[in-house]
Amino acid sequence: MGRGLGGEMAAEVCLHQKQNVSIPSCGAPAARPATLQGLPVAAGLGVGDTFLFPGLSFQLSGAAPRLADSRSEKARLVEAEAAIAPEVAAGESPDASGGMTAMLADPLFRGSIIDRIEAGMTAADAVVQTTHDLIAIYADLADPVLRQRAEWAEAVGRRLFRWLHGLATPVFGPGTRRVLVTDEMSPFEATRLSPAHVAGIVAERGGATSHFAIIAKQMGIPVVGGIAGALRAIRSGERCICDGLNGLVYLEPDPDTWVAAGTRLAEMDRERADLAALGGLPATTRDGRRTDLWGNIAGLADVQPVLDAGGTGVGMFRTEFVFTGDEAPSEERQAALYGEVLRRVPGPVVMRTLEAGGDKAIPYLAGEREDNPNLGWQGLRMCLDLEPLFLTQLRAMIRASAEGELWIMFPLVSARWELQRCRELVARANTEVVRDGGRPGNYRVGIMVEVPAAALLADEYLRDLDFAVIGTNDLTQFTLAADRMNPRVARWYDPYHPGVVRLMAMTARAARRAGKPIGVAGDLASDPAFVPVLVGLGFTFLSATAPRLGAVRRALGATDSRQARELARTVLSLTDGDQIRTLLHGSGRPG
Protein backbone atom coordinates (compact mmCIF):
# COMPACT_ATOMS: atom_id res chain seq x y z
CA MET A 1 0.00 0.00 0.00
CA GLY A 2 1.22 3.52 -0.72
CA ARG A 3 1.79 5.88 2.17
CA GLY A 4 0.27 9.24 3.06
CA LEU A 5 -1.16 11.06 0.06
CA GLY A 6 -0.53 8.30 -2.44
CA GLY A 7 -2.10 5.53 -0.39
CA GLU A 8 -5.28 7.26 0.70
CA MET A 9 -6.68 9.01 -2.35
CA ALA A 10 -9.89 8.38 -4.33
CA ALA A 11 -12.24 10.66 -6.49
CA GLU A 12 -12.93 14.36 -6.86
CA VAL A 13 -12.50 16.54 -3.78
CA CYS A 14 -12.14 20.32 -3.90
CA LEU A 15 -10.43 22.46 -1.31
CA HIS A 16 -13.62 24.54 -1.02
CA GLN A 17 -15.70 21.62 0.23
CA LYS A 18 -15.26 22.64 3.87
CA GLN A 19 -16.82 25.70 5.42
CA ASN A 20 -13.84 26.65 7.57
CA VAL A 21 -11.18 26.90 4.86
CA SER A 22 -9.51 30.26 5.33
CA ILE A 23 -6.31 30.16 3.31
CA PRO A 24 -5.74 33.19 1.06
CA SER A 25 -5.30 31.11 -2.08
CA CYS A 26 -8.92 30.60 -3.10
CA GLY A 27 -9.42 33.89 -4.93
CA ALA A 28 -7.61 34.21 -8.26
CA PRO A 29 -7.00 37.58 -9.89
CA ALA A 30 -9.35 38.65 -12.67
CA ALA A 31 -6.62 38.55 -15.30
CA ARG A 32 -3.56 36.35 -15.22
CA PRO A 33 -1.09 34.78 -17.63
CA ALA A 34 -1.91 31.36 -19.03
CA THR A 35 1.73 30.39 -18.63
CA LEU A 36 3.75 30.86 -15.44
CA GLN A 37 7.55 30.91 -15.54
CA GLY A 38 9.34 29.38 -12.58
CA LEU A 39 12.52 27.45 -11.91
CA PRO A 40 13.18 23.97 -13.29
CA VAL A 41 13.43 21.91 -10.10
CA ALA A 42 12.80 18.28 -11.08
CA ALA A 43 12.76 17.38 -14.77
CA GLY A 44 9.77 15.73 -16.37
CA LEU A 45 6.32 16.55 -17.67
CA GLY A 46 3.15 16.11 -15.63
CA VAL A 47 -0.42 16.72 -16.75
CA GLY A 48 -3.57 16.71 -14.64
CA ASP A 49 -6.01 18.82 -12.66
CA THR A 50 -4.55 21.06 -9.99
CA PHE A 51 -5.08 20.65 -6.27
CA LEU A 52 -4.18 23.47 -3.88
CA PHE A 53 -2.14 21.90 -1.11
CA PRO A 54 -0.71 24.45 1.36
CA GLY A 55 2.05 23.00 3.48
CA LEU A 56 1.24 21.98 7.03
CA SER A 57 3.80 20.24 9.21
CA PHE A 58 2.37 17.20 10.99
CA GLN A 59 3.59 18.07 14.46
CA LEU A 60 2.44 19.23 17.85
CA SER A 61 1.62 22.90 18.26
CA GLY A 62 4.43 23.27 20.77
CA ALA A 63 2.15 24.61 23.47
CA ALA A 64 1.58 22.74 26.71
CA PRO A 65 -1.91 21.29 27.13
CA ARG A 66 -4.06 24.32 27.88
CA LEU A 67 -7.12 22.50 29.10
CA ALA A 68 -8.98 23.13 25.88
CA ASP A 69 -12.75 22.85 25.93
CA SER A 70 -12.91 19.07 25.71
CA ARG A 71 -16.58 19.04 24.71
CA SER A 72 -16.06 21.30 21.66
CA GLU A 73 -12.80 19.57 20.72
CA LYS A 74 -14.51 16.17 20.78
CA ALA A 75 -17.31 17.59 18.66
CA ARG A 76 -14.74 18.83 16.15
CA LEU A 77 -13.15 15.36 16.08
CA VAL A 78 -16.52 13.71 15.41
CA GLU A 79 -17.17 16.19 12.61
CA ALA A 80 -13.74 15.50 11.11
CA GLU A 81 -14.24 11.73 11.30
CA ALA A 82 -17.59 11.98 9.53
CA ALA A 83 -16.12 14.25 6.84
CA ILE A 84 -13.13 12.09 5.98
CA ALA A 85 -14.78 8.65 6.35
CA PRO A 86 -16.00 8.50 2.72
CA GLU A 87 -12.59 9.64 1.48
CA VAL A 88 -10.78 7.05 3.57
CA ALA A 89 -13.08 4.29 2.36
CA ALA A 90 -12.71 5.36 -1.26
CA GLY A 91 -8.94 5.49 -0.90
CA GLU A 92 -8.51 1.97 0.47
CA SER A 93 -6.06 0.01 -1.68
CA PRO A 94 -6.85 -3.66 -2.42
CA ASP A 95 -4.24 -4.92 0.02
CA ALA A 96 -5.49 -2.71 2.87
CA SER A 97 -8.59 -4.87 3.49
CA GLY A 98 -10.43 -1.94 5.01
CA GLY A 99 -7.61 -1.28 7.46
CA MET A 100 -7.75 2.51 7.22
CA THR A 101 -11.52 2.59 7.63
CA ALA A 102 -11.22 0.34 10.67
CA MET A 103 -8.49 2.59 12.08
CA LEU A 104 -10.97 5.46 12.34
CA ALA A 105 -12.95 3.49 14.92
CA ASP A 106 -10.03 1.54 16.39
CA PRO A 107 -10.15 1.73 20.22
CA LEU A 108 -6.40 2.22 20.46
CA PHE A 109 -6.40 5.00 17.85
CA ARG A 110 -9.67 6.80 18.51
CA GLY A 111 -9.71 5.98 22.20
CA SER A 112 -6.26 7.47 22.73
CA ILE A 113 -7.27 10.63 20.88
CA ILE A 114 -10.35 11.01 23.07
CA ASP A 115 -8.30 10.40 26.23
CA ARG A 116 -5.86 13.14 25.29
CA ILE A 117 -8.64 15.58 24.45
CA GLU A 118 -10.21 14.93 27.84
CA ALA A 119 -6.79 15.60 29.41
CA GLY A 120 -6.76 19.09 27.91
CA MET A 121 -5.22 18.66 24.46
CA THR A 122 -6.67 20.16 21.34
CA ALA A 123 -8.07 17.63 18.90
CA ALA A 124 -5.27 18.38 16.41
CA ASP A 125 -2.50 17.84 18.98
CA ALA A 126 -4.22 14.69 20.24
CA VAL A 127 -4.28 13.29 16.70
CA VAL A 128 -0.58 14.02 16.18
CA GLN A 129 0.52 12.54 19.50
CA THR A 130 -1.61 9.42 19.10
CA THR A 131 -0.49 8.87 15.50
CA HIS A 132 3.19 9.15 16.41
CA ASP A 133 2.72 6.77 19.34
CA LEU A 134 1.02 4.13 17.20
CA ILE A 135 3.65 4.43 14.47
CA ALA A 136 6.32 3.80 17.10
CA ILE A 137 4.43 0.81 18.50
CA TYR A 138 3.48 -0.91 15.26
CA ALA A 139 6.67 -0.19 13.32
CA ASP A 140 8.72 -2.19 15.83
CA LEU A 141 6.60 -5.36 15.50
CA ALA A 142 7.90 -8.41 13.65
CA ASP A 143 4.56 -9.26 12.03
CA PRO A 144 4.36 -7.41 8.66
CA VAL A 145 0.55 -7.26 8.87
CA LEU A 146 0.72 -5.49 12.21
CA ARG A 147 3.52 -3.22 10.94
CA GLN A 148 1.15 -2.09 8.18
CA ARG A 149 -1.09 -0.63 10.86
CA ALA A 150 1.57 2.08 11.32
CA GLU A 151 0.92 3.19 7.73
CA TRP A 152 -2.85 3.13 8.22
CA ALA A 153 -2.56 5.19 11.42
CA GLU A 154 -0.38 7.75 9.68
CA ALA A 155 -2.62 8.03 6.60
CA VAL A 156 -5.77 8.53 8.70
CA GLY A 157 -4.05 10.76 11.26
CA ARG A 158 -2.64 13.12 8.64
CA ARG A 159 -6.03 13.46 6.94
CA LEU A 160 -7.76 14.19 10.26
CA PHE A 161 -5.06 16.70 11.14
CA ARG A 162 -5.43 18.68 7.92
CA TRP A 163 -9.24 18.70 8.23
CA LEU A 164 -8.96 20.03 11.79
CA HIS A 165 -6.79 22.86 10.44
CA GLY A 166 -9.32 23.70 7.72
CA LEU A 167 -7.39 22.07 4.89
CA ALA A 168 -8.38 19.19 2.67
CA THR A 169 -6.21 16.34 1.52
CA PRO A 170 -6.37 15.37 -2.15
CA VAL A 171 -8.22 12.21 -3.02
CA PHE A 172 -7.48 10.26 -6.16
CA GLY A 173 -9.51 7.66 -7.99
CA PRO A 174 -8.16 4.89 -10.22
CA GLY A 175 -6.05 6.41 -12.96
CA THR A 176 -6.39 9.92 -11.52
CA ARG A 177 -3.25 12.03 -11.21
CA ARG A 178 -3.14 15.56 -9.85
CA VAL A 179 -0.71 18.46 -9.98
CA LEU A 180 -0.21 19.66 -6.40
CA VAL A 181 0.22 23.40 -5.85
CA THR A 182 1.96 24.27 -2.60
CA ASP A 183 3.86 27.04 -0.90
CA GLU A 184 6.67 24.82 0.33
CA MET A 185 7.02 21.12 0.97
CA SER A 186 9.40 19.51 3.42
CA PRO A 187 11.47 16.52 2.30
CA PHE A 188 9.64 14.41 4.88
CA GLU A 189 6.26 15.36 3.38
CA ALA A 190 7.58 14.58 -0.10
CA THR A 191 8.32 10.99 0.90
CA ARG A 192 4.56 10.53 1.55
CA LEU A 193 3.70 11.23 -2.09
CA SER A 194 3.07 8.57 -4.69
CA PRO A 195 4.16 9.12 -8.31
CA ALA A 196 1.21 6.95 -9.32
CA HIS A 197 -1.09 9.73 -8.15
CA VAL A 198 0.97 12.93 -8.18
CA ALA A 199 1.60 14.08 -11.77
CA GLY A 200 3.64 17.10 -10.75
CA ILE A 201 4.25 19.75 -8.12
CA VAL A 202 4.17 23.52 -8.45
CA ALA A 203 5.88 25.22 -5.50
CA GLU A 204 6.29 28.81 -4.43
CA ARG A 205 9.65 28.04 -2.81
CA GLY A 206 12.35 25.41 -3.05
CA GLY A 207 15.36 25.19 -5.35
CA ALA A 208 16.55 22.46 -7.71
CA THR A 209 18.89 20.97 -5.11
CA SER A 210 16.72 21.41 -2.02
CA HIS A 211 16.18 18.14 -0.22
CA PHE A 212 12.48 18.23 -1.14
CA ALA A 213 13.52 18.42 -4.81
CA ILE A 214 15.94 15.54 -4.39
CA ILE A 215 13.15 13.31 -3.09
CA ALA A 216 10.85 14.35 -5.94
CA LYS A 217 13.57 13.49 -8.46
CA GLN A 218 14.06 10.17 -6.73
CA MET A 219 10.41 9.36 -7.34
CA GLY A 220 10.30 10.81 -10.85
CA ILE A 221 7.80 13.57 -9.99
CA PRO A 222 8.24 16.76 -12.09
CA VAL A 223 8.56 19.97 -10.05
CA VAL A 224 8.47 23.65 -10.98
CA GLY A 225 9.53 25.94 -8.14
CA GLY A 226 10.04 29.62 -7.49
CA ILE A 227 6.53 30.75 -8.55
CA ALA A 228 5.65 33.43 -6.02
CA GLY A 229 1.97 33.50 -5.11
CA ALA A 230 1.21 30.21 -6.87
CA LEU A 231 -1.53 29.39 -4.36
CA ARG A 232 -3.28 32.65 -5.28
CA ALA A 233 -2.63 32.55 -9.01
CA ILE A 234 -3.77 28.99 -9.63
CA ARG A 235 -7.34 27.76 -9.19
CA SER A 236 -8.10 24.37 -7.73
CA GLY A 237 -9.29 21.85 -10.31
CA GLU A 238 -8.07 23.54 -13.48
CA ARG A 239 -6.18 21.59 -16.12
CA CYS A 240 -2.46 22.05 -15.90
CA ILE A 241 0.80 21.05 -17.55
CA CYS A 242 3.80 21.02 -15.20
CA ASP A 243 7.04 21.20 -17.21
CA GLY A 244 9.81 20.53 -14.72
CA LEU A 245 12.51 20.56 -17.39
CA ASN A 246 11.90 24.15 -18.52
CA GLY A 247 10.31 25.53 -15.34
CA LEU A 248 6.97 26.30 -17.01
CA VAL A 249 3.38 25.84 -15.83
CA TYR A 250 0.58 25.97 -18.43
CA LEU A 251 -2.88 26.70 -17.01
CA GLU A 252 -5.95 25.58 -18.97
CA PRO A 253 -3.71 25.04 -22.02
CA ASP A 254 -5.12 25.48 -25.50
CA PRO A 255 -5.69 22.35 -27.62
CA ASP A 256 -2.40 22.71 -29.51
CA THR A 257 -0.38 22.92 -26.29
CA TRP A 258 -2.29 19.98 -24.82
CA VAL A 259 -1.65 17.84 -27.91
CA ALA A 260 2.03 18.82 -27.92
CA ALA A 261 2.29 17.75 -24.27
CA GLY A 262 0.70 14.41 -25.11
CA THR A 263 3.20 13.89 -27.91
CA ARG A 264 6.07 14.71 -25.60
CA LEU A 265 4.77 12.35 -22.93
CA ALA A 266 4.60 9.54 -25.49
CA GLU A 267 8.20 10.27 -26.51
CA MET A 268 9.26 10.20 -22.87
CA ASP A 269 7.53 6.85 -22.38
CA ARG A 270 9.44 5.43 -25.36
CA GLU A 271 12.66 6.89 -23.98
CA ARG A 272 12.03 5.26 -20.60
CA ALA A 273 11.37 1.91 -22.27
CA ASP A 274 14.62 2.19 -24.25
CA LEU A 275 16.59 3.06 -21.13
CA ALA A 276 14.95 0.26 -19.13
CA ALA A 277 16.20 -2.19 -21.76
CA LEU A 278 19.76 -1.16 -20.87
CA GLY A 279 19.28 -2.19 -17.23
CA GLY A 280 20.66 -5.67 -17.74
CA LEU A 281 23.84 -4.49 -19.45
CA PRO A 282 27.12 -4.09 -17.54
CA ALA A 283 27.99 -0.58 -16.41
CA THR A 284 31.09 -0.13 -18.55
CA THR A 285 32.54 2.44 -20.88
CA ARG A 286 32.74 1.80 -24.60
CA ASP A 287 36.28 0.47 -24.15
CA GLY A 288 35.35 -1.79 -21.22
CA ARG A 289 36.22 0.22 -18.12
CA ARG A 290 33.80 -0.50 -15.28
CA THR A 291 32.15 2.21 -13.22
CA ASP A 292 29.61 0.95 -10.70
CA LEU A 293 26.11 2.44 -10.91
CA TRP A 294 24.27 2.63 -7.61
CA GLY A 295 21.10 4.36 -6.46
CA ASN A 296 20.08 6.93 -3.85
CA ILE A 297 17.30 5.92 -1.46
CA ALA A 298 15.35 7.39 1.44
CA GLY A 299 13.85 4.13 2.67
CA LEU A 300 12.95 0.53 1.94
CA ALA A 301 10.35 1.42 -0.71
CA ASP A 302 13.07 2.98 -2.88
CA VAL A 303 15.20 -0.17 -3.12
CA GLN A 304 13.24 -2.07 -5.75
CA PRO A 305 13.07 0.84 -8.24
CA VAL A 306 16.87 1.08 -8.04
CA LEU A 307 17.24 -2.65 -8.69
CA ASP A 308 14.70 -2.52 -11.51
CA ALA A 309 16.74 0.25 -13.13
CA GLY A 310 19.87 -1.91 -13.02
CA GLY A 311 21.49 -0.41 -9.94
CA THR A 312 23.75 -2.90 -8.15
CA GLY A 313 24.15 -1.02 -4.88
CA VAL A 314 23.03 1.99 -2.86
CA GLY A 315 25.41 4.92 -3.00
CA MET A 316 23.50 6.95 -0.43
CA PHE A 317 20.82 5.88 2.01
CA ARG A 318 19.45 9.09 3.53
CA THR A 319 18.72 7.67 6.97
CA GLU A 320 17.23 10.92 8.29
CA PHE A 321 13.90 9.81 6.83
CA VAL A 322 13.88 6.99 9.39
CA PHE A 323 13.72 9.66 12.10
CA THR A 324 10.30 11.14 11.33
CA GLY A 325 7.70 11.26 14.10
CA ASP A 326 7.93 12.88 17.48
CA GLU A 327 10.76 10.78 18.87
CA ALA A 328 13.81 8.95 17.59
CA PRO A 329 13.27 5.38 16.36
CA SER A 330 14.44 2.64 18.67
CA GLU A 331 17.64 0.71 18.03
CA GLU A 332 15.53 -2.36 17.35
CA ARG A 333 13.45 -0.60 14.74
CA GLN A 334 16.47 0.89 13.01
CA ALA A 335 18.37 -2.40 12.99
CA ALA A 336 15.41 -4.22 11.44
CA LEU A 337 15.05 -1.62 8.67
CA TYR A 338 18.77 -1.39 7.92
CA GLY A 339 19.00 -5.18 7.87
CA GLU A 340 16.12 -5.48 5.42
CA VAL A 341 17.72 -2.96 3.06
CA LEU A 342 21.04 -4.81 3.24
CA ARG A 343 19.35 -8.13 2.50
CA ARG A 344 17.62 -6.78 -0.60
CA VAL A 345 20.62 -5.04 -2.16
CA PRO A 346 23.17 -7.30 -3.90
CA GLY A 347 26.05 -4.83 -3.54
CA PRO A 348 27.23 -2.20 -1.06
CA VAL A 349 24.80 -0.01 0.86
CA VAL A 350 26.30 3.34 1.82
CA MET A 351 24.33 4.49 4.86
CA ARG A 352 24.76 8.16 5.64
CA THR A 353 24.41 8.75 9.35
CA LEU A 354 21.66 11.11 10.46
CA GLU A 355 21.86 14.44 8.63
CA ALA A 356 19.23 16.62 10.24
CA GLY A 357 19.03 20.38 10.36
CA GLY A 358 18.86 23.02 7.64
CA ASP A 359 15.84 22.22 5.46
CA LYS A 360 15.57 18.76 7.03
CA ALA A 361 14.34 19.99 10.38
CA ILE A 362 13.16 17.28 12.78
CA PRO A 363 11.06 18.90 15.54
CA TYR A 364 12.31 16.83 18.46
CA LEU A 365 15.93 17.53 17.43
CA ALA A 366 15.49 21.25 16.82
CA GLY A 367 17.84 23.51 18.73
CA GLU A 368 17.75 27.27 19.08
CA ARG A 369 16.76 29.26 16.02
CA GLU A 370 19.75 29.97 13.77
CA ASP A 371 20.14 32.86 11.36
CA ASN A 372 21.96 30.62 8.86
CA PRO A 373 21.08 27.00 9.56
CA ASN A 374 22.99 25.70 6.53
CA LEU A 375 26.18 26.84 8.24
CA GLY A 376 25.01 25.84 11.68
CA TRP A 377 24.15 22.92 13.90
CA GLN A 378 23.37 20.09 11.52
CA GLY A 379 24.64 16.77 10.23
CA LEU A 380 27.62 15.33 12.06
CA ARG A 381 27.82 18.36 14.33
CA MET A 382 24.41 17.55 15.76
CA CYS A 383 25.23 13.85 16.09
CA LEU A 384 28.46 14.48 17.98
CA ASP A 385 26.59 16.71 20.44
CA LEU A 386 23.76 14.16 20.79
CA GLU A 387 26.04 11.22 21.47
CA PRO A 388 23.46 8.74 22.84
CA LEU A 389 21.32 9.24 19.71
CA PHE A 390 24.37 8.80 17.48
CA LEU A 391 25.53 5.68 19.30
CA THR A 392 22.08 4.14 18.98
CA GLN A 393 22.18 4.59 15.21
CA LEU A 394 25.72 3.25 14.94
CA ARG A 395 24.81 0.18 17.01
CA ALA A 396 21.76 -0.43 14.83
CA MET A 397 23.86 -0.22 11.66
CA ILE A 398 26.54 -2.52 13.05
CA ARG A 399 23.91 -5.02 14.25
CA ALA A 400 22.54 -5.10 10.71
CA SER A 401 25.96 -5.37 9.05
CA ALA A 402 25.87 -9.18 8.95
CA GLU A 403 22.96 -8.96 6.46
CA GLY A 404 24.94 -7.42 3.61
CA GLU A 405 27.75 -5.09 2.58
CA LEU A 406 27.51 -2.06 4.86
CA TRP A 407 29.44 1.16 4.31
CA ILE A 408 28.93 3.75 7.09
CA MET A 409 29.30 7.35 5.88
CA PHE A 410 29.62 10.51 7.98
CA PRO A 411 28.23 13.76 6.47
CA LEU A 412 29.42 17.36 6.74
CA VAL A 413 32.93 16.51 7.95
CA SER A 414 35.20 19.55 8.23
CA ALA A 415 37.87 18.69 10.82
CA ARG A 416 40.15 15.77 11.61
CA TRP A 417 39.09 15.69 15.26
CA GLU A 418 35.56 14.87 14.09
CA LEU A 419 36.85 11.82 12.23
CA GLN A 420 38.85 10.70 15.25
CA ARG A 421 35.77 10.98 17.46
CA CYS A 422 33.66 9.11 14.90
CA ARG A 423 36.14 6.23 14.78
CA GLU A 424 36.11 6.05 18.58
CA LEU A 425 32.30 5.93 18.64
CA VAL A 426 32.18 3.25 15.92
CA ALA A 427 34.63 1.14 17.95
CA ARG A 428 32.55 1.66 21.09
CA ALA A 429 29.31 0.78 19.28
CA ASN A 430 30.92 -2.38 17.86
CA THR A 431 32.11 -3.43 21.32
CA GLU A 432 28.63 -2.91 22.78
CA VAL A 433 26.97 -4.92 19.99
CA VAL A 434 29.36 -7.83 20.55
CA ARG A 435 28.91 -7.57 24.32
CA ASP A 436 25.15 -7.89 23.85
CA GLY A 437 25.49 -11.03 21.74
CA GLY A 438 25.51 -9.49 18.27
CA ARG A 439 27.75 -10.74 15.51
CA PRO A 440 28.74 -7.83 13.28
CA GLY A 441 29.72 -8.45 9.70
CA ASN A 442 32.49 -6.68 7.84
CA TYR A 443 31.77 -3.02 7.21
CA ARG A 444 33.59 0.04 5.92
CA VAL A 445 33.74 3.59 7.27
CA GLY A 446 34.00 6.70 5.10
CA ILE A 447 32.95 10.31 4.66
CA MET A 448 30.81 12.45 2.43
CA VAL A 449 32.87 15.29 1.00
CA GLU A 450 30.55 18.31 1.08
CA VAL A 451 32.75 20.96 2.66
CA PRO A 452 35.74 22.43 0.78
CA ALA A 453 37.98 21.72 3.79
CA ALA A 454 37.34 17.99 3.39
CA ALA A 455 38.34 18.12 -0.29
CA LEU A 456 41.46 20.13 0.47
CA LEU A 457 42.50 17.65 3.18
CA ALA A 458 41.34 14.49 1.39
CA ASP A 459 44.88 13.04 1.28
CA GLU A 460 45.16 13.18 5.06
CA TYR A 461 41.58 12.08 5.73
CA LEU A 462 41.64 9.08 3.41
CA ARG A 463 44.61 7.55 5.23
CA ASP A 464 42.20 6.61 8.04
CA LEU A 465 39.08 5.94 5.96
CA ASP A 466 37.86 3.22 3.62
CA PHE A 467 36.05 5.36 1.01
CA ALA A 468 34.70 8.80 0.19
CA VAL A 469 31.61 10.08 -1.62
CA ILE A 470 31.29 13.59 -3.00
CA GLY A 471 27.95 15.29 -2.42
CA THR A 472 28.04 17.80 -5.27
CA ASN A 473 24.94 19.71 -4.17
CA ASP A 474 26.32 20.78 -0.80
CA LEU A 475 29.88 21.08 -2.10
CA THR A 476 28.57 23.58 -4.67
CA GLN A 477 26.59 25.45 -2.02
CA PHE A 478 29.48 25.78 0.41
CA THR A 479 32.13 26.48 -2.22
CA LEU A 480 30.16 29.28 -3.88
CA ALA A 481 28.37 30.64 -0.78
CA ALA A 482 25.06 30.21 -2.65
CA ASP A 483 22.17 28.82 -0.61
CA ARG A 484 20.75 25.89 -2.57
CA MET A 485 17.29 26.70 -1.15
CA ASN A 486 17.22 30.36 -2.23
CA PRO A 487 15.88 31.02 -5.77
CA ARG A 488 17.29 34.56 -5.63
CA VAL A 489 20.85 33.22 -5.78
CA ALA A 490 20.14 30.41 -8.24
CA ARG A 491 22.34 32.07 -10.90
CA TRP A 492 25.31 31.85 -8.54
CA TYR A 493 24.69 28.22 -7.66
CA ASP A 494 26.58 26.41 -10.44
CA PRO A 495 27.90 22.83 -10.08
CA TYR A 496 29.87 23.41 -13.33
CA HIS A 497 31.88 26.17 -11.63
CA PRO A 498 35.63 25.46 -12.04
CA GLY A 499 36.13 25.81 -8.30
CA VAL A 500 33.68 22.98 -7.63
CA VAL A 501 35.09 20.76 -10.39
CA ARG A 502 38.67 21.26 -9.21
CA LEU A 503 37.76 20.33 -5.64
CA MET A 504 36.17 17.17 -7.00
CA ALA A 505 39.30 16.39 -9.03
CA MET A 506 41.49 16.98 -5.97
CA THR A 507 39.43 14.50 -3.95
CA ALA A 508 39.47 11.89 -6.73
CA ARG A 509 43.27 12.14 -7.02
CA ALA A 510 43.63 11.68 -3.26
CA ALA A 511 41.43 8.56 -3.36
CA ARG A 512 43.41 7.17 -6.28
CA ARG A 513 46.71 7.69 -4.42
CA ALA A 514 45.23 6.00 -1.34
CA GLY A 515 43.74 3.16 -3.38
CA LYS A 516 40.28 3.84 -1.94
CA PRO A 517 36.86 3.83 -3.68
CA ILE A 518 35.55 7.28 -4.56
CA GLY A 519 32.01 8.07 -5.69
CA VAL A 520 29.61 10.88 -6.54
CA ALA A 521 26.07 11.00 -5.15
CA GLY A 522 24.89 14.53 -5.94
CA ASP A 523 23.06 15.89 -8.95
CA LEU A 524 26.16 15.76 -11.16
CA ALA A 525 26.08 11.96 -10.93
CA SER A 526 22.69 12.13 -12.71
CA ASP A 527 23.90 14.48 -15.46
CA PRO A 528 24.62 12.43 -18.62
CA ALA A 529 26.64 15.29 -20.13
CA PHE A 530 28.96 15.30 -17.11
CA VAL A 531 29.37 11.52 -16.86
CA PRO A 532 32.40 11.45 -19.22
CA VAL A 533 34.10 14.06 -17.01
CA LEU A 534 33.49 11.94 -13.91
CA VAL A 535 34.94 8.92 -15.69
CA GLY A 536 37.95 10.96 -16.75
CA LEU A 537 38.49 12.22 -13.19
CA GLY A 538 38.67 8.62 -11.98
CA PHE A 539 35.50 8.14 -9.94
CA THR A 540 34.84 4.46 -9.29
CA PHE A 541 31.09 4.63 -8.71
CA LEU A 542 28.19 6.96 -9.44
CA SER A 543 24.97 7.03 -7.43
CA ALA A 544 21.84 8.53 -8.97
CA THR A 545 18.10 8.47 -8.45
CA ALA A 546 16.38 5.43 -9.92
CA PRO A 547 14.67 7.37 -12.76
CA ARG A 548 18.08 8.68 -13.93
CA LEU A 549 20.10 5.45 -13.80
CA GLY A 550 19.17 4.47 -17.37
CA ALA A 551 20.35 7.77 -18.83
CA VAL A 552 23.58 7.59 -16.83
CA ARG A 553 24.19 4.01 -18.01
CA ARG A 554 23.68 5.04 -21.63
CA ALA A 555 26.09 7.96 -21.25
CA LEU A 556 28.63 5.67 -19.64
CA GLY A 557 28.35 3.15 -22.48
CA ALA A 558 28.98 5.91 -25.04
CA THR A 559 32.14 7.11 -23.27
CA ASP A 560 35.68 6.13 -24.17
CA SER A 561 37.79 6.23 -21.00
CA ARG A 562 40.92 7.52 -22.78
CA GLN A 563 38.99 10.34 -24.41
CA ALA A 564 37.28 11.00 -21.05
CA ARG A 565 40.65 11.60 -19.38
CA GLU A 566 41.55 14.12 -22.06
CA LEU A 567 38.12 15.77 -21.68
CA ALA A 568 38.63 16.04 -17.92
CA ARG A 569 42.01 17.72 -18.42
CA THR A 570 40.39 20.22 -20.77
CA VAL A 571 37.55 20.93 -18.32
CA LEU A 572 40.06 21.52 -15.51
CA SER A 573 41.87 24.08 -17.66
CA LEU A 574 38.74 26.21 -18.11
CA THR A 575 38.05 29.20 -15.89
CA ASP A 576 34.31 29.71 -16.20
CA GLY A 577 31.26 27.51 -15.65
CA ASP A 578 29.70 28.58 -18.94
CA GLN A 579 32.86 27.54 -20.78
CA ILE A 580 32.49 24.06 -19.29
CA ARG A 581 28.79 24.02 -20.08
CA THR A 582 29.41 25.05 -23.68
CA LEU A 583 32.07 22.35 -24.06
CA LEU A 584 29.75 19.62 -22.74
CA HIS A 585 26.39 20.82 -24.05
CA GLY A 586 27.30 23.01 -26.97
CA SER A 587 25.57 26.04 -25.44
CA GLY A 588 25.98 28.40 -22.52
CA ARG A 589 23.90 28.65 -19.40
CA PRO A 590 20.25 29.52 -20.08
CA GLY A 591 19.07 32.86 -18.74
What are the SSEs and their pairings?
Layout: H1 4-7, E1 35-37, E2 39-42, E3 45-52, H2 70-90, H3 99-105, H4 107-118, H5 123-139, H6 144-164, E4 178-182, H7 187-190, E5 198-203, H8 211-219, E6 223-225, H9 230-233, E7 239-243, E8 248-251, H10 255-276, E9 292-297, H11 303-308, E10 314-318, H12 331-344, E11 348-352, H13 380-385, H14 387-400, E12 405-410, H15 416-435, E13 443-449, H16 452-456, H17 458-462, E14 467-470, H18 472-480, H19 498-514, E15 518-520, H20 531-537, E16 541-544, H21 546-557, H22 561-573, H23 577-585
CATH superfamily of the largest domain: Phosphoenolpyruvate-binding domains
Report mean pLDDT, rounded to a whole number: 86
CATH domain class of the largest domain: Alpha Beta
Question: Whole-Å distance between the termini?
Answer: 42 Å
Counted by DSSP, the helix tally is: 23
Unreliable stretches = 1-30
The level of helicity is 40-55%
Determine the strand fraction and express it as a percent band.
Answer: 5-15%
Radius of gyration: 24 Å
The name of the CATH architecture of the largest domain is Alpha-Beta Barrel
